[in-house]
Amino acid sequence: MVGDFNADGKPDLAVANSGSDDVSVLLGNGDGAFQTAVNYGAGSVPYSLAAGDFNGDGTRDLAVANVGTSNDTSYTLDDVSVLLGNACNSAPVALCKDVSVPAAASCSAGASIDNGSFDPDSNDTITLTQTPAGGYPLGETSVTLTATDSHGMLSSCASIVTVVDQTAPTIHLIGADPLTILYGQTFEEWGRVSPRQLRW
Description:
- Helices cover 0% and strands 40% of the residues.
- It has a four-stranded antiparallel β-sheet with strand order 1-2-3-4, with no helix packed on it. A four-stranded mixed β-sheet has the order 8-13-12-10, with no helix packed on it.
- By secondary structure, it is an all-beta fold.
- It has strands at residues 2-3, 12-17, 22-26, 38-41, 46-52, 61-66, 79-83, 99-102, 108-109, 126-131, 136-137, 139-149, 154-164, 186-189, 196-199.
């Protein structure tokens, strides 16, 4: 059935799953597409749904008719489950910070720009996603952090990841080690097509 179950003004879907004894709610994006289903337990073999404000709190609820057994081809009502709606779900809060990290040997680095993102609803969880995901190349990269709660509500922020090359250069000596060059002596740096003359 179709209804606005999270009070965001967008049509959502509710589906009774007789095979798994639960109800799936798919929140609508408002463009004809829906988010990943969230399942809520019901009675045995839920068969049909009805929506309404059954406890008078102004929030849309679901009533689920359960037939009790899949062998009952007459679909005789066994019991009814009532799933109370919660329109008070708040969007998570994404918090970002600019970060600077040293480059690894690959001249890139991973980094988190999360600065304590949270969900105002104490019983909710959030998933954090960074775009692009990294590793990040040398220099500055603009990164977006998206926080999504278990109901599909989200928020995002953006910050800068700066990857700095802090590795000192390495000089490889070809020949004797150590190499002593006297003052005023000519030195040919071998290993090149045209030896370079160095004089002190």
